[in-house]
Amino acid sequence: MSTEDLRFGVVGLGARSKIARHAHLPGAGSRLVAVCDPSEVQRKATLDELPDATAYADHREMLDLKLDGVFLTTPDDLHEDPAIDFLRAGVPVFVEKPLAITTSGCDRVLQAAYESGARLYVGHNMRHMPVVLTMRDLIASGAIGEVKAIWCRHFVGHGGDFYFKDWHADRRRTTSLLLQKGAHDIDVMHWLAGGYTTRANAFGGLTVYGGIEDRMDRSGERFADFVSEDNWPPLSQTGMAPVMDVEDLSMANLQLDNGVYLTYQQCHYTPDYWRNYTVIGTAGRLENFGDGPGDTVKVWNSRRSGYREDADQVVEIPAAEGGHAGADPRLVAEFVRFVRDGGATLTSPVAARAAVAAGYAATTSLRANGTPIDVPALDPALVEYFDRGQTAS
Asked: Which residues form the Gfo/Idh/MocA-like oxidoreductase N-terminal domain (predicted)?
């Protein structure tokens, strides 16, 4: 096994690009050597932190650098084409979730990886979050029997400035927040349930922020320039995105290929910001109360009763260092190891496609007054290839 540092590039230098810094370990296995963003301000700010890197305005200038891998942390609509370009150039790719903003877009990326043989990895970091791993371990232990239903309530708080003051609010760039944010939770529910969505229906709308008329073009600003916990209550917000045509409230029902049913609810004007999962099985149920270190997952499985706070099992969510409750450094370490050695990973390109496909179908249903929408099947050859760990048969 080579001990030389792997050479990585980063495309898209916004807030999420910081995840790639976990791969900058000069002399210890990997380093960031090239960065890319159309914004000169972003490039200069990044070079201040990575002075030995080279900077580019267009990702296509990086295709011939013989990189060992690249992190794509661009806005969602800019995942698909750059991913395909790098894969076709033989460069392993880390794509920040969601893989793409349409089901067909995901399929194009998977096909490019299949044809090129270049390794594809999707940044579904929640598979490395302690709260999710705790729930998964409890399910695997048989604590609630066979999973039959999962409900997720996602309270996307902070008064809307996270997602309604920039490109996230434009459906041309995200399809919807039901897909953009929901891809995380749908992937988690798929993973816990052991299946993928085959049919979806949903309702929702732009129920609060659409009434705010004060708009502002923030294309020259960074995330920290317009996000503040002082922006409360939601209807007091100003300077919303010029294009704001995604829903701030959505509710989806998903039917899986193994008979499990999921419900996903997302609200962008709650005062609190966290996720609540309830998983119901044939022999009990579990639920998380908080999703960070020191919070708990509770299990009720010993007897019938009315409401009781005294769960039969209480598991504390462990602490871990790093962003997203320690998930980000674990995610990047897995990608770096996958580039160097291959092998199994917690994340899955097929699962990433399934999460987008479910979110896309649900969004289509939502905008068609709840009409149920079937999810198109993925080419079995692609399923087999990625299930083998992206190795030739």
From this structure: 6-124
